[in-house]
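Format notes (please read before filing issues)

Several people have asked whether sequences and C-alpha cells are stored in separate files. They are not. Every record keeps both together, in the order shown below: the sequence lines, then the C-alpha cell lines. Line labels are part of the format and must not be stripped during preprocessing.
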Amino acid sequence: QVYEFLWDEFADWYIEISKTRLYEGAGGGGEEEAKAARRVLVYILDTSLRLLHPYMPYVTEQLWHHIPRPSATEDQVAHALMLADWPQMDDEVPLTTSEEAVSSFESFQALTRSIRNARAEYNVEPGKRISATIVAKGSLKDEISAEVKSLVALAKLDPEQVIVVEAGSDEAKAAAAVESVQLVVQDGVEAYLPLSGLIDPVKERKRLEKQSEKIEKEIQKLAGRLQSKGFVDKAPAAVVDKAKNELAELEDQAAKIKSSLEALS
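Then the structure lines:
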C-alpha cells in the first residue's frame, strides 16, 4: 500500500500537479502557493520514507538526508532516519478529511484520463497541444476551473484554447455543435475535443488505409487456413479455436478502421 500510494498517487499526480504551483513556466509563481506545495511535498515524502525504511533501509536513509528535516535533538546519538520517530496516529483524534475534496479530485483524475485515452485512440502526437471545452455543473465547474492549469499540463492541452463552461449554457451548446470528440466522463462532467485539432485528416486517412490493407491481407490468409479441410481436420482443436479468435479480432479491427474512414469522409 505504501508503494502504491507513493508511486500511483504521490508521484503520478501530486508531484506533477505541484509543478503548476512551483514553476512560472508551468503556470505557477505565487509565493504562498509555492510554499504550501513545498510543505506538503516534503511532509509526504518524509513520512513515506519513514514507512518504507524497514523494507529499503539504505536507499531511504540516503534520500532522507537530502530533504529538509528537523534538527537533531540532544538525546539522539546520530541524526539518521533509522533513529527518527515512526509516524504515529492518535486514535482519539480523527484525520482531517474532506469527502467533497476527494470526490472533486477523482472527477479531475477521470477527466484527465479520458482526454489522455482520446489522444491515444486518435494517435495524437505526444507533444501536440490540443484544444478542449470542459462542461461541468456548479461547484464541480469551479473546482475544475481552479485546476485548469494542472489539466493543461497533465493532458497536454493548449492553454489558450481551453475553456470550462457551465452545463446547459450557450457555450456548452456551441461546443456540442462543433464536429468534436465527445467524452462523457461522468454525470455532470463532459469534454469536447474538436477533431480539427486532434488529427490531420489527410495523414490520418493515409495511415488508416495502409493499416486496412495490411489487416485485410491477414484476414484473407487466416480465413483461407480455416476454410482448408486439411487444417481444420488435422490441427488440434485448441489451434483451430485460436485461429478463429484471431480472425474475429482482425475482423473487429477492420470494422473499426472502416468506421473511422467513413467518419473522415
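For reference, the curators noted about this record: Residues 203 and 220 are 26 Å apart (CA to CA). The chain has a mean pLDDT of 86.
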